[in-house]
Amino acid sequence: MRNEWTVRPEVVVLARLTRFVNERLPKHVQLSKALLAAIEAGHWRPGDKLPPEVELARLTPFSLGTIQRALRGLVDEGVLVRKQGSGTFVTGTRKAVNAPWHCRFYADDGKTFLPVFPKVVSRRKIRERGPWSEYLEHRGDNIIRIDRRMSINHEFIVFSKFYLNADHFGGMLKKPVAELAGANFKTILEQEFGSPVMNIVQSATVMRFKDSICRACRIHAGSTGLFLQSVASTLRGRNIYYQEFFVPSSNRRLMLSDHYGVDEL
Known about the structure:
Elements: H1 4-7, H2 9-18, H3 27-40, H4 53-59, H5 64-76, E1 80-83, E2 87-90, E3 104-105, E4 116-126, E5 143-152, E6 156-165, H6 166-169, H7 177-181, H8 185-193, E7 199-208, H9 211-217, E8 224-233, E9 239-248, E10 254-258, E11 261-264
Antiparallel strand pairs: 1-2, 3-10, 4-5, 5-6, 6-9, 7-8, 8-9, 10-11
Helix pairs in contact: 2-3, 3-5
């Protein structure tokens, strides 16, 4: 009689791959990497259905909570999709942002940067006023806000709010969301709108995140992290965009850069 590991080859693949994951990483990160490796190796293809969460918990070393957290992260990144009453399916492989300007965290070698996998969670025009208003000629609802959830090497999530003046960059509302997900906004503004970024001024503050930010970053309510503000301008000093980043605590070094130099955190 064959055992269930033989009957379910995908579980064998998953169990084997987990041995090569960095044991210093949280378990849900190890599982995410193992699942991604299996998908990218073709063991699960777009449209394939993953085993139920309860079955994965029974057949692997991971708890149900760990499995749910790993799958939820891959759903957030667009790698998987949940269909109510049907299960969890593979949509395709992950797409890293092209040459990220922000969110550059050093890898273990201290030289290269960790990959960033973003997903647009909302895009809309807003009326609410805030720090962005003084930089972007805010009048009425002429401000575009694009929210992205950025997975940093599947280790943690950075939440970003990106603000633009719709009078100058209204075309950003018409671009396909899928195209924006992995895009470098700086490159789009330069190549498609003729507004090259020549200077970026950033500030950093350690603060306690609001509950809504904690949910977006998938961290516990009341957690503390790094709040980054960036204002980009042209050579003539016209402000192009204002951006906020909410960075959970981690052991990764972050590089901050502006027109005048580079700093590390």
